[in-house]
Structures are given as structure tokens and as C-alpha cells.
Amino acid sequence: MQVTLRHAGRSEVSFDCAADDTVLVAARRAGVTLHVACEQGGCGACRARVVQGTVHYPLPASSRWLDEGSGSEDYTLLCRAAPTSALIVETAHPWRLRESAPLSRILSG
User: Topology of domain 2-84, per CATH?
Assistant: First the structure.
């Protein structure tokens, strides 16, 4: 499944997510660092609004963070959610792209 992240004032970023991976795991694999804290579905730091697509929760997630706002179908916790279709989400916090520098440049300082 393809996951696309949106955040106000930033270009979108997209990456692939395997059916058995959470969005957080797939993002890390793609070099995208998301705003997270507990990574257990309990703190809401990774909460995002679903613009398009659907998710399921193979691991427990707090309904507290999913029920706020305009309805539980509109929000997801990226640390626990696994997409069941192509997914577009709007994040509350900006993400970072891991710098992809050649090892020689990193070692030379």
C-alpha cells in the first residue's frame, strides 16, 4: 500500500507500506521520521487525520485519541495503524527526512 503524508506548508512525502507493517515502521524504513512518543498507541503524539483510505489496528490503540474531533473514522494513530488501502493522512506535526549522505561524507565530518 502507498502511504502519503501531508502537513501544512510542506511537500507531500509518499512511501510503500507492507500489509503487516504499521505506518510508523514503514516510514522509518523509508527514511521518514515521524513525531512519536510512546509508540504504544497511548499518547496520541502520532495522531493524524485520515484524508483518504482505511486502516486497521493489529495492535491495541487507545480509543481516547481516535474518538476526538469530528469522528473516530477521521483520525488514526500512525504508530499502530496498518493501511488496508492506499492511505493519505494529514499529520499534526511535521516529519523529517533522514539525511541520505554517502558514508564517506559522514565520516569526513
Answer: Ubiquitin-like (UB roll) (3.10.20)
